[in-house]
Write the structure tokens for this entry.
Amino acid sequence: MFSDGATPCPDGRSATRNRHTVDSVVTRRKIAVVLPDLRGGGAERLHLNLAHAWVREGIDVEFVLLRAHGELMHMLPSGASVHELGVTRMRSAIPALRRYLRGAKPDVTLVAMWPLTCVGVMAWLASGRGGRLFLSDHTQLSVACLEETSTSLKTLALSIRLTYPFASGVIAVSKGVRDDLCRLGGLSTQRVHVVYNPAAIDPDEAPVTDVDPDVLWGRSGGLRLLSVGTLKPQKDHATLLRALALLPATVDARLVVLGDGPLRAELAALAEDLNVSSRVVFRGFVDDPTQWLRAADLFVLSSRWEGFANVVVEALSFGVPVVSTNCPSGPSEILEDGRFGDLVPVADPASLAHAIVRSQEKEWERGVLKDRARDFSVSTIAHQYLRVMGIEA
């Protein structure tokens, strides 16, 4: 449904008879959320947050996973179910997902993350198009494709053009992701819904521990810097370490990095080379970062690209000032072009260091930052998803 009138088929034929619109309302309420697994990523976490809210609304939620494993499996809401397709290759997922859709007959199927989105369309078509199908993308595909896969932009664009038009709707987690997706797939911006991520944390509901902040940062006093993210090229922790090395001696800062990944050893070696290893703590993957967020003085995001940047909202939830790269896309939308936090160029250690220093001179109103975070509350975003998918709450 990406053009006025009939939905275009790849071969030019009209798909009017099978078109699904979002004008009517689904009265039955079963949502199947299709993901590769539940590893500790932002997309996986946001769907778990959505599921908790939907289950509280009395909606039947089932996670359909290629493999039922990952660090976040224990976060499944009580009342939600899991169906494992038991496959490891995307092409093997098409018949497995088709069988599931034919048997389970969900009212709405929500498939996230390319190329699984394309697989979801093919399986849904083969199953007879039961219920509605929505696709959800969470990153700048044109950048991520080049940086993280061997897929060419031409192949990526073709896969989107041949499959996405059949879906009942597409959801992008930011305007930047929407615009990127529309450029790639030739989709109309009016046909792609922007629904931000449910990333806000309610500090009143977050666990409170008695751990001393000095223990968390490994020393007493000084400026407590926090970064959260997988240690991979996208997050560009190398630029953050170089910025730390450029801070003047008058700035007594220590950085805690929460996250693990393939670049951990390389980043630790870089910290040694830059003579900042005594000022950096690599804590590894942490399931719940709230105790660090409560104690941090400044949150720093150094990413080269994002889809939305959940961690920026999480920091704002605790009233923590933010310095972020102005990467495509998400941070500038969350921070409203600098109104709620500082934005600096991508891969620019000097600008990042300057912004960290400047943050000490500013007096951010923490209440204002918390208010901004509430715009991305789980309950607010969960209901936006339901409205887009045509489900009564």
